[in-house]
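Homework-ish question, so no full write-ups if that breaks the rules, but can someone show me the predicted structure for this set?
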Amino acid sequence: MSGAWRLPRGGRVDRARPLRFSFDGKAYTGLTGDTLAAALLANGVHLVARSFKYHRPRGILAAGCEEPNALVQLDRGGGREDPNLRATQVELFDGLVATSQNRWPSLSFDLAATADRLAPLLPAGFYYKTFMWPAGWWRRVYEPRIRAAAGLGRSPSRPDPDRYLHRHAHCDVLVVGAGPAGLMAAAAAVMSGARVILADEQAEPGGALLAEPGLRLDGMDGAAWLAAALGELTAQPNLTLLPRTTAFAWHDHTYLGLLERVTDHLAEPPPHLPRQRLWRVRARQVVLATGAIERPLVFPDNDRPGIMLASAARTYLNRYGVRVGARVAVFTNNDSAYATALDLAAAGVTIAAIVDCRADPGGELVQRARAVGLPVRPGAVVTGTQGRLRINQAFVAPLDGGGRSSPVVCDALLVSGGWNPTLHLHSQARGRLRFDEKLWAYVPAELVPGEQVAGACAGSFALADALREGAQAGVAAAAAAGYRAELPALPAVEAPSWSEPAPLWRVPLGRGRAWVDLQNDVTAKDLELALREGFRSIEHVKRYTTTGMGTDQGKTANVNALAIVAAGLGQGVEAVGHTTFRPPYTPVTFGAFAGASRELQLDPLRRTPSHAHAEALGAVFEDVGQWRRARYFPQPGEDMQAAVGRECRAARQGVGLFDASTLGKIDLQGADAAELLNRVYTNAWAKLTVGRCRYGLMLRDDGMVLDDGVTARLGPDRFHMTTTTGGAARVLAWLEEWLQCEWPQLRVFCTSVTEQWAAIGVCGPKARDVIRAAGTDIDLSREAFPHMSFRDGSVAGLPARVFRISFTGEIAFEINVPSGYGGALWEALWQAGQPFGITPYGTEAMHVLRAEKGYIIVGQETDGTVTPLDLGMDWMISKAKPDFIGKRGMARPDLARADRKQLVGLLTRDPTVVLEEGAQLVEDPAQSLPMRMIGHVTSAYHSANLGRSIALGLVQGGRERIGQTLWVPMPAQPAIAVEVTRPVFLDPENRRLNG
Amino acid sequence: MVNDAYRRGRSAAPSHGTMQRYSIFSLARNALTGHRNWQAAWRSPEPRPAYEVVIVGGGGHGLATAYYLAKEHGITNVAVLEKGWLGGGNTGRNTTVVRSNYLYDESAAIYEHSMKLWEGLAQELNYNVMFSQRGVLMLAHGSHDEQVLKRHIHADRLNGIDNEWLTPAQAKAFCPPLNIGKELRYPVTGAALQRRGGTARHDAVAWGYARGADARGVDIIQNCAVTGVRRDGDRVVGVETTRGYIAAGKVGVVAAGHTSVVMAMAGLRMPIESVPLQALVSEPVKPVFPCVAMSNAIHAYISQSDKGELVIGAGTDQYVSYGQRGSFHIAEHTLEAIVELFPIFSRLRMLRQWAGIVDCTPDRSPILARTPVRGLYVNCGWGTGGFKATPGSGHVFAHTIARDEPHPINAPFTLERFRTGRLIDEAAAAAVAH
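A: Not a homework solution, just the prediction itself:
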């Protein structure tokens, strides 16, 4: 048995396949096809939650995504934890474990419900008015308690065992919603040959057809017609049907986000499937067939468990075979709730009363209800209810106030305040809305480009209209996407018509709190208080009262709130306007956004050609941008300083081996390549001869150093540019931006060749010996191959381009080979270098070696605020060139100020002390805070070659201060004395370099 | 000099009477009468024909400016003109982070000035702005980040601003959901922590200043868009609005992303690019995230609101726009970073997503200054980080308007610096747009 409230037959559940589940530790049985809410109701469980603020007992209001109350925590084991799931959307599976949230110790006895007793002290915005004294208590006392009381479910605490994937799709027509309108739209579009995606958030398509037994389409009932229509539709190869898929966001240019829940409904998700799939769909046309959401009514004590939307009760009855009560009252302002009453009565449920605020309701359904003897009470309203954990009585009085209220005993009260078309996506697409004073609801005022709307979301609630509009929308969409589409035959429809609803925003009678936003506990009085306090913009009312800001985003609350605010301001609903509809339509899992972008897939990991060998040598690596580079190569027993010291000595005394493949490389070709270089670098390039290299400094347009590197002239119209490792992509984008936006007339093509070349550096007095030993046809002699030139040839039997350039101040060759040969080249040099004691060195030694020579690293000595003049590199600036990027920026008067920070060397008085990079320099370490800082340390190392520490820094007027003593104040120790020096510590005459 | 007409206007300023005090006692008293006797937090007056000072822009900075004009300088004949609803721009759209651990002296001074005002703001305004000094953690992923953050720490220490270095384990202890595992693509190698940093309730800041300014006689005029700035030669004389012409002795423009538009009406071209910046929140959960954490390297900002929502800041779009929504991939990129750094949050769900238009200067530092037009002042260029500066910005901008000369704290933040080159390049300092 799957619950005492289950009907013996009917509905779309499978009575042969019962499912066990538990709620708050108690075991129940449901059926395959149930939602958790349906299964709970089948077991007579209405109390499922506590509200956010006052911890009021709450039941199930709805049957879909609009549910404000019935939020549960699910634990599926193995770390599959989910807070705040709507029980109305959770598909039941065997072994499901759900618990209620936001209550202690239990749902039926929640101590925090004392907040409800204090409610008179806690109106909207109360927290802005108190908790201010004493001042320190907000952070220490009040806030922790408020935080603990707030929040709903608990965050997962264990690792997520699931995967999430992304899918990019293009289609001609995306149909959102597979109810009658959506099905017809998809059918019409598919027949034209258009590629169609039909997405529906529910487990099975059909929408209203699944829960309305009284319909006849071509003589069939809704279910039979649906089966036939779906069979035909899904046979078409150009249709993609996505059940359990919510279109949650509409971005610019008909780019929509869809969330497909792939395995959430399965007891044991198969390992090959992702949990959820995020679809990014670029659609030519979008048909919105998103239906409508029923509004509750606002009357005193309208929040008790057992008070439910009339359409939800009908869904539970017809789709799940569940009675929501034995003696049910109905309260409505429109005809749709009568259908529920008729269906319930037919299922043997006693209808205690149909309370209709309309004085003289006369629609077809009303007449039917009267004909079967249901107690219709026209011109009446519910003025209050009773029942602590479940409604047991409603009080009914004439709306005109001219009579006493009388109790109606009931165990459920079904409410309907009319229907709101679901226009979230329309509004996200910046479609305007219009308030229709026949339907008393917002409808689309216009279509946005690429949009069609059909059915209830367009305000057309009758089945025949929905089918016709759906077909028309499908035809229009297919035609707009470039297909010839014809209107398909429409089924002959028998469905009851509705008469006009009457607006009823708030029952004017009765005492007690009338709830507008059930999840956030906002009452009609809260809205009025906000208005009284000057919060008149609807956005202010929303923020002050938090109405519509719950996890349901006010799907059932917002329009009632707007109307109550309008009444309070004496304006029409439309004049009040509405708050912005923000994506997503329903909440979307973070994991789905992240998709596969975790760990190594978050960002590409780039390894150098020597990586495997470096690993074998026991190198310690560091991340430099996307690259993973060897930082140093410790030998047994060595720490970093010892290893780096040994590497640095080897590079100056013997020979070092260094993988420089990470440097950015850009191939420049075209008649204007030299002209481009002239414009982007500070120095002159026209006269660089083929076979020679030149160092270049690139500036931003504000005159600040952007990047540097060596560029070689391969031919009259061809250059090989190198950039910093981190700047490779930025520099290419920079060149392209100038070429494409500012200088389209220049004939230059820029191609990144970073990945095409491996570059291995051999450096030190024995560099030539090693390369010769490896075997080369290039004359490496000083005369034949001077510094700042390159030669093509072979090295170690590999085709190579060898640059004689140096970032260490030693004789150095950078051997470039096609990147596939990089590992082999490294290996060959390593082998050939053994007799010479070749020593691989990492990025740390590279940093030290270049600092000994005072060479800058862009991003370390520069930070975007440093000009070439600051670096003492005025020799790099061509006086002859008419212009280059940054020339004008550099000409600004403040950039020539003598007190700008300039690059200097810093030597600590105690040679064993290594400064901390980023430390600040002051003239007087005894001054009080805030101190006057005149510079900072940009680089600092122990230099084994010099036998002491060295540092570079940027110091105000630094070049004038050479010889001065400055101080580096450090926490918890005396300030460190440093002498300002020139920034070149070794071989200032470049004898070694040119050797 | 303020001419006589404005003096007359000033004496004619309505006396708003005493502000109703908020406290637990006034709440209790009002509970007895069903909360029917609360005053409006601010009036909704019709604009008068002339004011001594007109502030264009009713966000936090504009309202704070009006408040301090009235309170500190006795200038109460002030109107704040807001084209929509007050606090509806970036004030109501940001991720509410407050910190002062900036690198450069000029920035450190103005944000620390602000921090000190934050520390007493609820009491000052008699409005609980929920300033919560829960600590701001800035994560380092590698040696370059460490170097940048340590440089900040050293500079802050000597500027008297708290900022300390934490090891990964210490960062984890301070922020338990943080993943410091080596399996991360960019493992956390340390963090800088400003314990005095934290968050505040953004709406309350606007409302608190509005209430305080209104009580001192300032007219806050919503739904009043400025459509023109009227000049008499080189001096401003008033503004055209959708509710008619309003004469003004002085005009302060505090219009964030739309500053360029307003200043163009006065014939001034601003060095500002306006781009959408996105933010999002999760569904509310019980307390799980105790602090603010941010990573510049993989771009994520996160904290948890008192309501329980995770509040997450994303990046800016790469193109200029006034559309208050951003691109899909920007939010996606941020959530990748969040899930990478805080993997337990993969199951939490995005509840709302939105964007504001931020006004970015070339050096990512603000402009708080006089302009070439006499009587016209501008406060803009706060980019992605303006909320934290709200009190300090309003305070020194009020000084600038009242005295017609900058406060020492905002003196460096001139408009001319982009011409002379004396930049305060916090974008460079943070190594990314901050």
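Now go work out the reasoning yourself. Hint: Chain A touches chain B through 107 residues (CB under 8 Å).
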